[in-house]
Amino acid sequence: MHLKSVVVVHFLSLWYSSTWASLVQDNSTFAGPIPSIHNPTSASIGSIEPVMSVLPHGTISTIRTPGSNITRAIFSNGPINIMNWPMIQDLQTFTVSLYNQSHTKVVILQSANPSFFIAQLSLLEHDGWPTPTEQTKTFIDAAYDISTLPVIFIASIAGRARGAGNELVLQCDLRYAARGRTFLGNFETAIGLIPGAGGIAYLASLIGRAKAFEYVLSGRDIDADTAERIGWVNHAVDSYDLDGVVGAFAERLALFPVQALAAAKKRINEVSLVPPEQVWADYNAWVPLVGKPFSAPLASKEMKLSMNESFGEYQLYEGDEVLRVYE
């Protein structure tokens, strides 16, 4: 059994234990491997039989209790939950699986990592992988699915979400953020780039032109309470209440007819969704900045400071630490 599967299984066991403690009778069934998304099976927890599966590249796990119409998608990809090619492929596989299905009305996106929701797009290149600029095209397609599928997507954020991580959060239908643990931001301008997957378009729409200038230009993090105040997230919630608050809201929505939920989302999108051409305009403005004499040395220094995107002080406090690329 892969280490990543062990970690995810352990997280899911703890999550179920804390959320539905009164229903849990035996957690031993979590000890085995999580099945593939293409062949899910049930793991019994008392009277509840959640269907658990792992996406093909192992970076996203899903868990659904039959009859609940709620699916939790849980990110787990290395020490900082980096958005790299395996995670992008798993994200697209997951969103595509939600077409032409009837068992999920609400998706809750969350992280198995207590410090990182999703860190950022990885700048590391690997043999056999597309370049980061090419990977981003697939990410944009998957994020567009999130914003337009007739399924309600809720981001349950307890950890850092920067760069592409924040851009994913912004394209969810609703966002809940844990106080003291959530830090959101787009730091790209500090290293000679800009947010390239909808970050500018969505931030300008959600928080207004002036605040978008403030956060995109400075690259600073924003905490949960401030994010709630300016409209970046719907609600800031005490960390110990996050699962309960998000779960209760999802359960409320899951009671309603799927046709009404889908029609409401479609109509709200018709009057307010950032047009996809604006997301692609972000991308088309970002690509020419990549690898240029003014950006490449800064990106290279950031990789060195972050120890090639490893867990450490730089990644934890990147909204401030990014200024070290100028030292």
Describe the structure.
The strands form 2 sheets. The protein has an 8-stranded mixed β-sheet with strand order 1-2-3-4-5-7-9-12, with helices on both faces. A 4-stranded mixed β-sheet has the order 6-8-10-11. Helices cover 42% and strands 15% of the residues. The chain has 13 helices and 12 strands. The chain has 327 residues and is an alpha/beta fold. The protein has helices spanning 3-19, 85-97, 132-148, 164-170, 199-207, 209-218, 224-230, 242-254, 258-272, 276-286, 296-305, 313-316, 318-321, and strands spanning 41-42, 51-54, 60-64, 70-75, 106-111, 116-118, 152-157, 160-162, 174-178, 183-185, 222-223, 235-237. The protein has one domain: 2-enoyl-CoA Hydratase, Chain A, domain 1 (Alpha-Beta Complex), CATH 3.90.226.10. The radius of gyration is 19 Å and the shape is globular.
Labels describing this entry:
327 residues; alpha/beta; 2-enoyl-CoA Hydratase, Chain A, domain 1; 8-stranded mixed sheet; 4-stranded mixed sheet; Enoyl-CoA_hydra/iso
What's the SSE blueprint?
Blueprint: H1 3-19, E1 41-42, E2 51-54, E3 60-64, E4 70-75, H2 85-97, E5 106-111, E6 116-118, H3 132-148, E7 152-157, E8 160-162, H4 164-170, E9 174-178, E10 183-185, H5 199-207, H6 209-218, E11 222-223, H7 224-230, E12 235-237, H8 242-254, H9 258-272, H10 276-286, H11 296-305, H12 313-316, H13 318-321
Parallel strand pairs: 4-5, 5-7, 6-8, 7-9, 8-10, 9-12
Antiparallel strand pairs: 1-2, 2-3, 3-4, 10-11
Helix pairs in contact: 2-3, 3-10, 5-6
